[in-house]
Amino acid sequence: MNERRKTFGPAPGSTDDLGAGDFKPRPIARPDPEAARRVAEEGGYGSGASVRAPSDTQRRYRTGRNAQLNLKVTPENRARFAAMADEAGISMNELFERAVDALDRKDKS
Asked: pLDDT tier at 80 (50, 70, 90 boundaries)?
């Protein structure tokens, strides 16, 4: 056999037909959106809206700050820092700047 087998169709020299020419795809079954919603709610998945824990709230402010400072901290200290910013009603950036300024003033006196 010097001929290569074709991907679709019988092997060269063979009379064996796979019958792919008679293939007819079946229609796509569309699920009922209302039934899917019911099943999701029964499974405790709700409406699908993302819900964040309060400690993971994104705090985004347009401030003109464009340099990034990454710190590895314990989860407890991060939670304390976020709580301090929330209590003061300021961003975490502002709290950091105030803390640095206060430390700087303390060191100079």
From this structure: very high
Per-residue HEC secondary structure of 42-100 comes to HCCCCCCCCCCCHHHCCCCCCCCCCCCCCCCCCHHHHHHHHHHHHHHCCCHHHHHHHHH
Euclidean distance between CA atoms 95 and 84, whole angstroms: 8
Three-state DSSP at 2 gives coil
Domain total of the chain: 1
Range of the domain at 80: 68-109
Q: Tokens in use for 48?
A: 């699908």
Instruction: Please state whether the predicted TM-score (pTM) of the whole model is above 0.85.
Output: no
